[in-house]
Amino acid sequence: MDTSGVLLIAKSEVICAHLNAQFRNHSATHDDDKVQECDNEVVKVVVEEEEEDDDGGVGKKEAIGGAGNKRKRECEEGSRIQDTSPSPLQKTYIALCYGHIDPALTRISLPLSAHPTRALLQRVDHTQTGKASITLVSNVKHNICPVTQQAISTVQLQPLTGRTHQLRVHLHDIGHPILGDKLYYNEEAGSDSMGGGRLCLHAQQIQLIHPHSGEVMVIESSGASFLQ
What we know:
Blueprint: E1 3-10, H1 13-25, E2 43-52, H2 62-65, H3 69-78, E3 90-98, E4 107-109, E5 112-114, E6 122-124, E7 134-144, E8 151-159, H4 166-173, H5 192-195, E9 201-209, E10 216-220
Antiparallel strand pairs: 1-2, 3-8, 3-9, 4-7, 5-6, 7-8, 9-10
C-alpha cells in the first residue's frame, strides 16, 4: 500500500455495502480511501499518514457477496439505510510529479485496461477493451528539486472515475509520472533522491454521504509529508 492521507474504514458489512453503493453510483471505484470490514461501530474515519492502496474497489468483495442468513439480513438492512443516489462523492489528491506540467491542462481523459503481460498493472488502451477514465487537474505549481535540480510539479487531482492505478497511469502517459512510483516510472521518476523513496501521492480529501444520517461529510487529511 503506497498512498498516504485519508483512510476510510467501514466497521460492519452493512456499512461497507452502503459505501460501495455510493462509489458505484458515482461511476467510480474509490482508489485511495480504502474501505475495510471491521466490527461494532458504524463508521470510523482515520485521518493520518497511514499508507494505503490507491487501487481497485472499496472494501472486500467477500464482505458483501457471501452466503448465510445472517449476512443476507445485514445486506438487506444496508439497502434500507439511506438512498445514495445521486451521490456527492468527491475525491481529491495531491501529487508531486516529474517535469513542469502545463498549467493550462485541466482534464486527462484516457481509457484504461489491464496490461496484457504485466500482472496487476494497467495501460492506456484506445481499443474497445479500454474503459473510460477521467481525471481533473488543477492548482499546478512548478518547482525545482533541491537535490537533483530537476523540474518538478505539484498538482491537485480529482478522479471522476476510479480505475485501478488511474492517477499513476494518466500522469505517466502525459509524461509527468508521480515521483517514487516504482510501478509506472521512467528513470527520473524512479530516482529515490527525487521521490524520497516513496510514492508522492496523497489522499487530501473525501466527500461522501453518512450511511445513517444522510448528511454530506467532508473529511480532510493533514498536509502531505513529501511537501514539507
